[in-house]
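Margin note: ligand = zinc ion.
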Amino acid sequence: MTLVLGIETSCDETAVAIVADDKRVLANIVLSQTEHEITGGVVPEIAARAHLDHLDGLIEDAMRQADIGFKDLDAIAVTAGPGLIGGVLVGVMTAKAIAAVRDIPLIAVNHLEGHALTVRLTHEVAFPYLLLLVSGGHCQLLIVHGVGKYTRLGTTIDDAAGEAFDKTAKLLGLGYPGGPALERMALQCADPAHALKTFTFPKPLYGQEGCNFSFSGLKTAAKRLIDSMPQDASKPDFCFAFQETVAAILCDRTKNAIEKYLPLRAPSPALVVAGGVAANKRIRAELESLAQKNGLAFVAPPLKLCTDNAAMIAWAGMERLKLGLTDSPDFPVYARWPLDPDAKVASLKSQKV
Ligand code: KG4
Ligand code: ZN
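Resulting structure:
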């Protein structure tokens, strides 16, 4: 049996997991930093310090849960980017230290690859599959041809969908993180038809060619609506209409991506969703129905593996380890690190730190 320890510290979750090559998750600990509740958004310096405070203890906890010692580990996988660089450094330095002391392989994992491959930990999914990766920092459609082999069909030209959820939820005073809070509020909507008539939002790029996304116009429109909303306006109705709009945009862009994916004639065609926003049940349901209409299997990791965690990093590390794709102990960290190096959006170009 091969055991990989995974470490994730690229945003505001300090996470540690231990995964076996038979797909058993022996430990999966996620500490969501509450330090950012006051600001309603992640403060990079505070996040890095919190990772430093908690990471060692969480590694000990994970080893205890899995009932193993450092000597039982076969490799260490760690998020090396993209993300908030202070936090990434905390995880990477810790991983490098353990690997050096134990003299075991080290794997630098792209956080996005962690999300992209999670589904292969929980389901039997064959390459190539179509992936909608939708989180707080990313919104992309990719074809996953294999480990390390991605074609990016589209990305956001401004904000990610999760950011739109978070900012809107903050303006509504729903707390942080905003996505789950907004979804809970939307569930209280009593009259969906009335909600959709009362609150209308723009759908940037909707109906146009291509697979890119844009959410900043939606965010601004939400702010304007909230600013001019009467005191007795229904928050559940607002949230329902907002959520439906995001779902419609995601489905429209994914429909175009399916048209590009189908000619590949994948042996087991599948639409996979990943990233925090994929935890949204309404969005999942809409995407599932779109996949079914187009003859694709719909596969989504369980909710707790959609949001940031270290099991996904350990698993991506496992897949890389099995292919001999390990890294030298001096590998760098990256604030930006696109999965598809040929992706043409200049602002997302790989930037070594
Ligand atoms: O993948 P993730 O944990 O971190 C990033 O890599 O960004 O995604 C976090 C994002 C946040 O924007 C959060 O509000 C959003 O995913 N999110 C949701 C839901 N759960 C998390 N958005 C909508 N509905 C949800 N249920
Ligand atoms: Zn993520």
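The chain has two domains: 3-116+306-350, 126-302.
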